Structure formats: structure tokens, C-alpha cells
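hiii so my PI (J.) wants the whole complex modelled not just the main chain, which honestly fair. so below is everything: two entries, each one labled with what it is. i double checked the lines twice but i was tired so who knows lol
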Amino acid sequence: CCDADLYKQPRGLEDPEALARETVFSVSEIEALYELFKKISSAVIDDGLINKEEFQLALFKTNKKESLFADRVFDLFDTKHNGILDFEEFACALSIFHPNSPIDDKIEFSFQLYDLKQQGFIERQEVKQMVVATLTESGMNLSDDVIESIIDKTFEEADTKHDGKIDKEEWRNLVLRHPSLLKNMTLQYLKDITTTFPSFVFHSQVDDT
Amino acid sequence: QPVAMNAFELISLSKGLNLGNLFDA
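here's the output for the full assembly
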């Protein structure tokens, strides 16, 4: 009469307190975030894990969209490099996007995001690839000359060592001069996560006072 | 005037980088 699985905690939420210690989230916020995770991870296969298709579906509301950046973000979230996101990976990555997270974590994440080939620097060809991808996905059309001049100007400012690439130190200096470049590294939603997903209280395991 | 724009400002407009969309799931 006893199905032990029925009494197990859902996969990925075995220890919300430990996850709260690892991230900037409180235990209640971790539990509320898990409500979001459950929604996204059950969209295609209800297995308690987010695959790339489910991630794209949540981002674009369609799984048809190919996006260089959605792929890149997914790969950075996927710290276990197994092609799927468990709740721990999801919570740890989103923690960086919390308004209270250290700016250095946001700078590091954004650098890795744009360092497409993971060589430790952002090269001109990568910047061009990302500019073209952004223009294509938004249906904007700029001539190659205009794109090249935007990249020239960017490297004139960012590449202070004049070696044709942007290293981590140069990236840091650039974003500190232009904080708007980190705008998408902060999600205000994460501050209100417990009010966005109030149903977490029905599954809460702890008294988070 | 697009030429006045930093390439990374342009890139940051990508929808794929707008993770706020995850919260409309």
C-alpha cells in the first residue's frame, strides 16, 4: 500500500535550505522559484528537468525559434554539461541575475556569455556574429559597412591594449563605464518571486522566518 | 543613429538575452 516515491520530495528540491545558503535567495524564494521551475520543466517532458526545447519555449513561447543567445545562456546554466538543467543549476544561475547579487558575478557571467568560443577573450569575429544574430532575430537590416563601423567604434573604446580582442579586464572596465551593458543581467522579477508564485506556501517544508 | 551605438548595447537587445520572459511561463 505504500509507494515510497509518493512521499519523496520532488526531484531537485531535496534541500531548499542548502540551496538558499549557496545563493542569494531565501528559503521561501527558493521554494517559489521551484514553482516556476516545475512549470518550465513540465512543458514538453514532465521529468523535473529543463531541456533546451523547454528553455526556448519558456523564453520565446515557441520551440521553433533558433537563438544563438538562448543556446549560449542554456549552456552557461548547464554547469554539469549534460544537456539538461536540474533545479540546482537553474537556481544557482538565476541567483546571479538577482538584484542583490554582486556586480562582479554579473560581469563574469556576461563575459562568458559573449566569449562564444570560450577562449578567455572576446574577439572581433564573435562580436560580429552576435551583432548579426541580434539583427536577424529582430528583423533589423543594417549594411555590412554600418555593422563594421559599430564594431570598429566598440573596439576603439573597449580594446585598450590594442590587440584585437577584449579580455576580462577590458570587459570589466567597459561595463563599469557603461552600466547599461549589464542591464539584462538583473531581473527585478526575482525580488518578487514569492508574490509571483504564492502557491509555494502549500508545498513549503520550512518555516522561513 | 546606429553608428553611435556600442555593439554590446545592440547585442543586449536580443530577445534570447531577456530572461525576464521566463517568468511569463
